[in-house]
Amino acid sequence: MKTILLIIIIISSSCSFGQSKTCAKFIKGLDKEHKALLDTMSVYKYVDSDCIGFSGCIQTDLYKLFLKMQEKFKTEELVYLTDHKSTTVRVYAFWALCKKKYPDFQTILNKHIKDKTMFLENDTDTGLWLKVNEFYLSLVDPKATVYDDCIKLTDAECETYKSKLK
After folding, report:
1. How many domains is the chain built from?
2. Of 11, 20, 74, 93, which has the highest C-beta tally within 10 A?
């Protein structure tokens, strides 16, 4: 019974954060190379950090796609991709914007603060189930040291967002 309830919750939260019409229109206008990159990323149902593995730091194929995404897509395009139907693409698009120090990142954070879609993040030698909104907040948390290359909120702003997660 608990399993069925969990599946229903995940599906309903995924549907509520489906791809926007604006994002779909944007994707239709992309060239084959950009579409292929997104299609490949969309196959994955998880997110890899920069360093995976028991015996050392290995960059996975998925993380390499993320690096390629950062290189190939302009800032404005990444903003559209934060509304992509694939959780993996959404997460990586926001992460890329934070790494690029996108000044209007809070608009996206506000839009997705209720996105409780679950995904698996692979970090070093473990996997952790996270909600999209919690991961977004962890990227911009001024006290977090894991993502120190990302733009940050102030302490007060971060506390305000954390209160919205409850």
Report:
1. 1
2. 93
